[in-house]
């Protein structure tokens, strides 16, 4: 496949192993190599953290605050300690090391001691012989509170009394680009609100901590960044990092929900206190209350354009509600401000961004953070501009799209491939789906499902567009590095790398890289733990780039070790030898042998690192080369709306995406489809609602996830393979950018169907009821 090829995703009959075809054995990069653990997961035998067991096991439970803001007057654990079967109770007074932790800012207490700052904050933990005993003991802890007025409106946080010693303002970014006096002939304004999307893991958080003879502890859990989690936990335990080992168990998917070490620290404290293995499995309510959510965001926009619809200036104010603690809010704000104008050419941009503390649930890293919120807003502005000018929405976007060589409002030049116009044209020109039948037999197609109360005559179809972008890897000076080892013995290769596969398929990719480089079919990926060198967090597609690059470099070093003796024997360089399907051949055909024969019982291994080029923080004007690379997506949404009931059915999502290079077609398709579906949830149903800081209905009856019945037809109409030359393999992150783009596309389609502005996500029924005579 050429480096500038443009490829449509194969339909099901074209994929390896599809019905009607002879099954083939996928091998190496570019093939749909199945995941090693796919069968075990399907059969229910895959070991997750909640399945773990140890001799002498104790069970843990955590006491959480029922209030969003309160002063702690006293904590009495005597009733819990006296209960039969209770082995330990720990509070803030029992934390031997650092009392607070945090990935970017250490501002979050292990246990609240003086103030409770959000609903569900941990106050104490219990270990007991039985899980019911542990829960009863936690409930028996008596806490006297002095209730305080919660600050839940982020706009009021600026003037409110400080909720934290560090103050309420976490970060302010003023972006200045171009001429502040520039104006356009046409101006549109809007105010937009984005709700609190939860990662909603199907498998709730769980873990097992086992004390070690040296006074340390081993923690088995579904971490996505094991070395950082270990270091944070060790600091709180008052132990050196080498006495704390974190072993990654099977991860039941992760989009940010596995990244709170506050779950692991109480577990380790209890194991150290009791000297026994301790297991903790969160309830669904605890899962909703404990982990981070997508930042609720308030956005104000003003777009200036000339009479032809070409953008002149964008002005924006972006306010992120970080909840009680900083977490990754600084990084999320940087992405929101940098991408506030979208993948469009904007000569002048002036953006103010803030992230503030409130007494709402904690916000943090969720796929596409920052970029998703601004995409919904700037695409609404593009729809408004198109309507005001009487221009087709797709055409207006086409007049403004970004390309390689253009400059972001941060002053950074887009050096990576940016085929935005090609992506937009692909979805615009893709045939529209057929209209639903206006017959009783076809009523199941109506919004509301088979038993929907709507009438066919009230249904309007809308078509909407959205363009999205995300950054890959860390930003603003993050030192991105990963280390991998490849070892080969007896015809079997083993990859040792602490990159956690959260469902992204890294383990499969690592196998494909080694197969491609060494011609060895049997490749195993070792389980991840912190005895291995660090590989960094599983976010922003970084393991495909950084950890995949480290695996490739290590495999190439082993390849050189394998080929050098043969090359020396035949008087040629290793570059004149190639490995294909397990055979080593020379360019002239003189040498032909198998990899197994060349190994001759030897063990070969190599360790390598991959570190992308450095970035820099945004300066006081929001300027700087803050991002390593960018990925782009275009989506056309088709929706049916019952304009009397406000019910919305997403009929089809046509997707065109900039992927760099297809490494595993089936896996890539699944990632894009999952991202689109997550975005549809954010557009229509997913909102963790709060009332004065109290989480309402923290369960799957109150928090509505889209099911397979809600998922639309997803048509991947084009994948542009234009390789990024600075990325290993040329591949780009796949799953975040459709999450970013699809909510905006759904909202655009609902606007087209109803004539309503749709300025809030998720879209409420009253916002989808058409205005009279629309």
Automatic annotation (TrEMBL):
Record's protein name: Molybdopterin cofactor-binding domain-containing protein
Source species: Streptomyces exfoliatus (Streptomyces hydrogenans)
Residues of the Aldehyde oxidase/xanthine dehydrogenase a/b hammerhead domain: 43-149
Domain of life: Bacteria
Region (Disordered): 1-39
Pfam families in the cross-refs: Ald_Xan_dh_C, MoCoBD_1, MoCoBD_2
